[in-house]
Amino acid sequence: MARLEVKNLHVSIEDKEILKGVDLIMNTGEIHAIMGPNGTGKSTLSAAIMGHPSYTVTKGEILLDGQDVLEMEVDERARAGLFLAVQYPSEIAGITNAEFMRAAINARRPEGNKIPVMEFIRKLDEKMAVLDMPEEMAERYLNEGFSGGEKKRNEILQLMMIESTFAILDEIDSGLDIDALKVVSKGVNAMRGENFGSLIITHYQRLLNYITPDVVHVMMNGIIVKTGGAELAKRLEVEGYKGIRDELGLEVVLDED
């Protein structure tokens, strides 16, 4: 079992503090969801975990199996088993999906032990079939000309191929119609198991109808204010965030996400 720990994390951007002491522990075998109003720091948390250079950690720790993630470069974090699916994936001309994923897989394997071509092709065909993706998607340039739904499916395909230990899915449901949402959820659910954990950032209960979380966190004003089971997300769908604010006596203070 692997563990990702966030301890008293404070993060600023351009001298403005966004995260104000986030605490979170996630193990493999678990799916966690973070919900909260716009501008409360959810995407800032994902960016800080992966090492986005625009975000400055001013206090706290991020540990992966006891290793200090903050001492790692972004590529080292990825090779160590962290994966981030962002809201707006970049388009990269000249690099095909297949080339990108094979390079990413090999980056996590020991030197001199690259994945054999036929093994890669078989695995790629298998995972694309799970996501109902046509074969020609493998030879298209990375995200170039992709629709929003295609980009989201493609990120889940990358996750399934790379087999990262912890996946942070930042609003993976954004802009998806119901059919695409079901397919993306199918891919995430196919990854569930004792060697995989995921942190899903979302605004809406609808995604969690298809990916049932083990733990739900509510983030407000740069901290996690409440944690519970899947029923907490259903409560938010009925009451909105006002019910949590009223319960905890919180004021509405929104920072940039």
From TrEMBL:
Chain ranges of the ABC transporter domain: 4-246
Gene3D superfamilies noted in UniProt:
P-loop containing nucleotide triphosphate hydrolases
Query: Which InterPro entries does the record associate with it?
Result: AAA+_ATPase, ABC_transporter-like_ATP-bd, ABC_transporter-like_CS, FeS-cluster_ATPase_SufC, P-loop_NTPase
Q: Which UniProt keywords apply?
A: ATP-binding, Nucleotide-binding
Query: Is the Nucleotide-binding keyword given for this protein?
Result: yes
Matching entries from SMART domains are given as: AAA
Which CDD domains does the UniProt record give?
A: ABC_FeS_Assembly (cd03217)
Q: Name one GO molecular function term.
A: ATP hydrolysis activity
PANTHER family registered for this protein in UniProt: ABC TRANSPORTER I FAMILY MEMBER 6, CHLOROPLASTIC
Q: Which family does it belong to?
A: Belongs to the ABC transporter superfamily. Ycf16 family.
NCBIfam families, per the entry: sufC
* Protein name as annotated: Fe-S cluster assembly ATP-binding protein
Query: Organism, per UniProt?
Result: Desemzia incerta
